[in-house]
Amino acid sequence: MKNGVRSTLVLALLAVAARPVLAQNSLPPTAKSVRGHFTALNKRLLDMAEDFPGDKYDFRLKPEMRTFGAVIVHVASGNIYAAKAGRSENVNWDELDPQDYKTKAAVVALLKKSIADADATLKALPDDSFVKTVEPWIGVMEHSAEHYGLLVAYYRANGLVPPASRPKK
After folding, report:
1. pLDDT mean for each 10 residues of the chain (169 residues)
2. pLDDT attached to residue 124
3. pLDDT in the model for residue 38
4. 111 in Cβ contact with 75 (< 8 Å)
5. What is the pLDDT of residue 11?
6. How far is the C-alpha of 56 from the C-alpha of 48, rounded, in Å?
7. Are the CB atoms for 70 and 104 separated by under 8 Å?
8. What is the DSSP string of 61-106?
9. How high is the pLDDT of residue 169?
């Protein structure tokens, strides 16, 4: 066997052998990644909303800042926007009034509904739609993640440990 043919054969065998390893290390498709991150972030936010003491929902770090409950309502507003924009509705960011959600139960119910609606929209989108754009999803996730960090500070200021930071049992 000539060296050129042998080299080609060795390279072909290496390529075939390496294929499963390379496939395992490939990134997930964009649609799967966006859906997964959106779901995971909203789960962490919902865990916080359900866990934070109801008698502290009016807590704010500084007088000019939103209360804990108002931050959750604001995040829900983003999810509602994402769901409508994801369905190609002509929509602006319509900020919900936190005064319309007076109890922890009302705020948690709003967040759950906004998450369910946004998740349903995300799941209904064909995977190839993410080739054109990942908006509004990436923008809303960035926004929600910023507020997640703020809510961690609300927890810490109250001597509490956020659910995601607690030791796993």
Report:
1. 53 50 66 95 98 98 97 98 95 94 98 98 94 94 97 98 92
2. 96
3. 97
4. yes
5. 44
6. 12
7. no
8. SSTTSPPHHHHHHHHHHHHHHHHHHHTT------PPPGGG--SHHH
9. 80
Contacts of residue 161, Cβ cutoff 8 Å, sequence gap at least 6: 155
Q: Please state the φ and ψ torsions of residue 162, each to the nearest 5 degrees.
A: -60, 145
- The pLDDT of residue 15: 52
* Residue tagged 């934070």 (tokens): 52
pLDDT value of position 143: 97
Domains by residue range for the chain, with CATH: 28-164 (1.20.120.450)
